[in-house]
Amino acid sequence: MREKQNAAIQELAVSVAELARPDMRPKELREAVRQKFPEASKKEISRAAFYAVILAAQEQPDKAEDLHDLALKSRNDPVDESQGRSVKSTKAKDKPR
Predict the structure, then answer these.
(1) Residue 74: partners with Cβ closer than 8 Å, 6 or more residues away
(2) Per residue in 18-65, pLDDT tens?
């Protein structure tokens, strides 16, 4: 099962690397990836973006930096797509005192 998940993430990572552009917004990347992989979740695409960074770092260091920035933005994107609304933080510092 784990090998199947890794293969799927690797396949997504290849697509992320092909589709990613400098200054691309995470939502744009997710939409582009989902045209090829409609069932891919935000979490899977974010993981694939980080995996793409690892692959690119070995062969294309300049592209790795762009992918890393996009992966971080995607991971921290506050939009919960399943609900179509912003995700509220549950951190203690965000709660009223």
Answers:
(1) 26, 29, 30, 42, 45, 46, 49
(2) 998 878 888 898 999 999 999 999 889 988 988 888 887 777 777 767
